[in-house]
Each structure stands twice: as structure tokens, then as C-alpha cells.
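ZP: hey, is the flavin mononucleotide complex queued? I don't see it on the tracker
AM: it wasn't, my bad. submitting now with these inputs:
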Amino acid sequence: MCPFAAFFQREAGPSLRLFDFPRKMLTGAPAPCPADPEEEPALSQVEDFRHALRRLGAAVTIVATLDRDGRPRGLMMTAVMSLSFEPPSMLLAINRSASALPALLEHGRFSINLIGAGEEEACRNFAAADSESRFQADHWEEHPDRVPIYRNATATIICDVGDVQTFGTHAIVRGLVRSTRYTHSTDCLVYLDGRFCRTAAGDALQLP
Ligand SMILES: Cc1cc2nc3c(=O)[nH]c(=O)nc-3n(C[C@H](O)[C@H](O)[C@H](O)COP(=O)(O)O)c2cc1C
């Protein structure tokens, strides 16, 4: 059974909410993850890995930069994590085939936009659009630091590119934080089990 899913209760529609007792105590709740792997036919190692990763809920972000002509470039990302406070830094894993990567490295600066609950439709549109048309003007503005920022982001972290390492298919980019802005809301979108889910800190399970 999916351990992460034990903390979620499906609501109507695609959103999930944290709830305050273990899932096994619910009756009739639909399972958000496929059945227990032990009940399924043997899968290849890569398929097992994919299934395991479906349980790794991660905050949805859009990473954005400018190309040399000043046009916005970017991609949706979950492989984004805080690295350290001293120095303030972030770590990103970007597929080397991503169309935005050359612009991000050339510009040397990017924004990490944390996407809030309620932005699912804009997210789906962004993810489905081709790289030339994914930035809808009404959702974006240009920050004085010369990066696009998402107007409805719950937080935006603007970084300069620190160093970059290659690991297999990915570029591991270290970002040195220049500035940060955030709203009062901490509700966010999480990508879990192949879908966008809403989380709200107020709904979180309080652990002793
Ligand atoms: C929810 C979600 C999370 C994603 N996370 C990452 C990620 O962390 N790193 C990455 O390189 N691509 C990630 N992608 C894929 C990119 O957003 C994008 O689809 C891919 O880079 C192709 O973009 P392109 O058409 O601009 O080349 C993610 C896509 C989705 C829908």
C-alpha cells in the first residue's frame, strides 16, 4: 500500500487533502495508488522505480528565465529542493533535453515559482503548451532582476546559476539565491500519483 497516500483523503475532482487519521481507518475510500506491488505481476526494475516515484509527492514549481532575445523560457519542475541557508541556495535537476536549459545557463539567472492550490488549470495549460507559447502574458510579469515571475505564485525564489554538473540525462544546477518573495498562503500544489493534488498546512496531520 502507498504509505504517502495514507495521509491523504480524496475529495471530489482531482484534488487531495491531508487528513488527520490513517487511511486504513477509512472505509470505502478509493485508493489513489495502484495496488500493492506484491499483488501485481513482476515489473522491470525501471517500472518498479517509476511506481515507487509515484509515491514521492513533490511541490509543483515553474522555473523561468529569459533567452537572449528577452523572451520567457521555462519548464514545470518537481526536482527542486532547498540546499542550504549559508549560502542561501537551491538545487535543481533539469533534463538536458529541456528546451529552456540553454537559455537558463546563458542568462545565468532564473526564478523558481511555487505554484499554489487552485492553479491546476494554468499548470496543465503550461505543461501542455509548446515551449514558444507556454507563457501566457496575464500570468507572468518581469521582475526587476530580469526574470519572469508567476503572478500567483505562493513564493518566488530568484537565483543566479552557481555551478552545473551533469549526471546521466540531467544537469544538476545549483542556484544562489538573490531574492525571495512570498504570499501569506502556504497552500500548494503537489504532484503525487501522476496528478496535481492540493495540500493545505491547516489540514496537515499533527504528529506528536
Ligand atoms: C509535474 C511535472 C514535473 C516535472 N518535473 C521536471 C523536473 O523536475 N525536471 C525536468 O527536467 N523536467 C520536469 N518535467 C518535464 C518538463 O516540465 C518539460 O515537460 C520537459 O522539460 C519538456 O520541455 P520542453 O518541451 O521545453 O523541452 C516535469 C513535468 C511535469 C508535468
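AM: back. Residues 60, 75-79, 93-95, 98-100, 127, 131, 191 surround flavin mononucleotide (CB under 6 Å).
ZP: great, adding it to the tracker
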